[in-house]
Write a structure and sequence with these properties.
Elements: E1 4-8, H1 13-29, E2 32-39, H2 56-72, E3 77-83, H3 86-97, E4 101-105, H4 113-116, H5 120-127, E5 132-135
Parallel strand pairs: 1-2, 1-4, 2-3, 4-5
Amino acid sequence: MFKTVLFPIDQSRETREAADVVTNVVKKYGSRLILLSVVEEPPKDAPSADDPMVSPEVVAKLLENAQSLFSGQGIQSETLERRGKPAFTICDVADEIGADLIIMGCRGLGLTEEGADDSVTTRVINLSPCPVLIVP
Protein backbone atom coordinates (compact mmCIF):
# COMPACT_ATOMS: atom_id res chain seq x y z
CA MET A 1 0.00 0.00 0.00
CA PHE A 2 2.73 2.50 0.98
CA LYS A 3 5.72 1.36 -1.05
CA THR A 4 7.64 4.61 -0.65
CA VAL A 5 7.37 6.83 2.42
CA LEU A 6 8.87 10.32 2.49
CA PHE A 7 9.77 11.69 5.93
CA PRO A 8 10.82 15.36 5.84
CA ILE A 9 12.87 16.13 8.92
CA ASP A 10 14.07 19.17 10.81
CA GLN A 11 15.31 19.69 14.35
CA SER A 12 11.88 20.03 15.92
CA ARG A 13 10.41 18.00 18.74
CA GLU A 14 7.47 17.23 16.44
CA THR A 15 9.77 15.52 13.95
CA ARG A 16 11.25 13.34 16.68
CA GLU A 17 7.76 12.35 17.83
CA ALA A 18 6.67 11.54 14.27
CA ALA A 19 9.63 9.15 13.93
CA ASP A 20 7.75 6.52 15.97
CA VAL A 21 4.84 6.62 13.54
CA VAL A 22 7.24 6.42 10.59
CA THR A 23 8.85 3.34 12.14
CA ASN A 24 5.48 1.64 12.60
CA VAL A 25 4.26 2.41 9.06
CA VAL A 26 7.51 1.41 7.36
CA LYS A 27 7.72 -1.87 9.27
CA LYS A 28 4.05 -2.73 8.74
CA TYR A 29 4.11 -2.13 4.98
CA GLY A 30 7.75 -2.97 4.25
CA SER A 31 8.13 0.50 2.77
CA ARG A 32 11.15 2.18 1.27
CA LEU A 33 11.99 5.12 3.55
CA ILE A 34 13.35 8.36 2.20
CA LEU A 35 14.54 10.98 4.71
CA LEU A 36 14.51 14.52 3.37
CA SER A 37 15.89 17.67 4.91
CA VAL A 38 15.69 21.05 3.25
CA VAL A 39 18.40 23.67 3.59
CA GLU A 40 16.35 26.83 3.69
CA GLU A 41 17.34 29.93 1.82
CA PRO A 42 17.65 32.71 4.42
CA PRO A 43 15.52 35.79 3.67
CA LYS A 44 17.59 38.45 1.91
CA ASP A 45 16.61 41.15 4.39
CA ALA A 46 17.30 38.99 7.45
CA PRO A 47 20.57 39.15 9.32
CA SER A 48 22.73 36.07 9.20
CA ALA A 49 19.98 33.73 10.32
CA ASP A 50 19.97 31.99 13.67
CA ASP A 51 17.99 29.14 12.11
CA PRO A 52 20.22 26.05 12.00
CA MET A 53 18.27 24.71 9.00
CA VAL A 54 20.13 27.20 6.77
CA SER A 55 23.43 25.42 7.45
CA PRO A 56 24.25 22.56 5.07
CA GLU A 57 26.57 21.08 7.71
CA VAL A 58 23.83 21.01 10.36
CA VAL A 59 21.37 19.48 7.89
CA ALA A 60 23.87 16.80 6.82
CA LYS A 61 24.46 15.84 10.47
CA LEU A 62 20.70 15.79 11.11
CA LEU A 63 20.19 13.36 8.21
CA GLU A 64 23.06 11.18 9.40
CA ASN A 65 21.60 11.02 12.93
CA ALA A 66 18.11 10.21 11.63
CA GLN A 67 19.47 7.47 9.39
CA SER A 68 21.28 5.96 12.40
CA LEU A 69 18.11 6.13 14.48
CA PHE A 70 16.13 4.16 11.89
CA SER A 71 19.02 1.76 11.29
CA GLY A 72 18.91 0.97 15.00
CA GLN A 73 15.27 -0.01 14.49
CA GLY A 74 16.25 -2.35 11.63
CA ILE A 75 15.05 0.05 8.93
CA GLN A 76 17.18 0.92 5.93
CA SER A 77 16.69 4.48 4.71
CA GLU A 78 17.94 6.77 2.01
CA THR A 79 18.72 10.44 2.59
CA LEU A 80 18.17 13.48 0.43
CA GLU A 81 19.31 17.02 1.12
CA ARG A 82 17.82 19.80 -0.98
CA ARG A 83 17.86 23.59 -1.02
CA GLY A 84 14.77 25.73 -1.24
CA LYS A 85 11.49 26.54 0.40
CA PRO A 86 10.52 23.56 2.54
CA ALA A 87 6.88 23.01 1.51
CA PHE A 88 7.52 23.28 -2.22
CA THR A 89 10.68 21.19 -2.02
CA ILE A 90 8.93 18.44 -0.04
CA CYS A 91 6.16 18.21 -2.63
CA ASP A 92 8.61 18.28 -5.55
CA VAL A 93 10.66 15.46 -4.01
CA ALA A 94 7.51 13.43 -3.26
CA ASP A 95 6.56 13.68 -6.93
CA GLU A 96 10.11 12.97 -8.11
CA ILE A 97 10.50 9.76 -6.06
CA GLY A 98 6.93 8.57 -6.53
CA ALA A 99 6.11 8.72 -2.82
CA ASP A 100 2.93 6.96 -1.73
CA LEU A 101 2.85 8.78 1.62
CA ILE A 102 4.43 11.77 3.32
CA ILE A 103 4.62 11.62 7.12
CA MET A 104 5.24 14.90 8.95
CA GLY A 105 5.18 16.29 12.44
CA CYS A 106 3.05 19.38 13.01
CA ARG A 107 3.89 22.38 15.17
CA GLY A 108 0.31 23.64 15.10
CA LEU A 109 1.20 27.00 13.54
CA GLY A 110 -1.37 26.54 10.79
CA LEU A 111 -4.24 25.99 13.18
CA THR A 112 -5.02 29.71 13.33
CA GLU A 113 -5.99 31.88 10.41
CA GLU A 114 -2.94 34.06 10.95
CA GLY A 115 -0.55 31.10 10.84
CA ALA A 116 -2.16 29.14 8.02
CA ASP A 117 -0.32 30.96 5.25
CA ASP A 118 3.06 30.42 6.90
CA SER A 119 2.60 26.78 7.83
CA VAL A 120 4.80 24.31 5.96
CA THR A 121 2.37 21.55 6.91
CA THR A 122 -0.65 23.37 5.46
CA ARG A 123 1.19 24.08 2.23
CA VAL A 124 2.31 20.45 1.90
CA ILE A 125 -1.24 19.20 2.49
CA ASN A 126 -2.53 21.53 -0.24
CA LEU A 127 0.22 20.82 -2.79
CA SER A 128 1.16 17.19 -2.19
CA PRO A 129 0.92 14.65 -5.03
CA CYS A 130 0.16 11.90 -2.48
CA PRO A 131 -1.54 11.42 0.91
CA VAL A 132 -0.02 13.23 3.88
CA LEU A 133 -0.10 11.81 7.42
CA ILE A 134 0.26 14.55 10.02
CA VAL A 135 1.47 13.54 13.47
CA PRO A 136 0.40 16.15 16.05
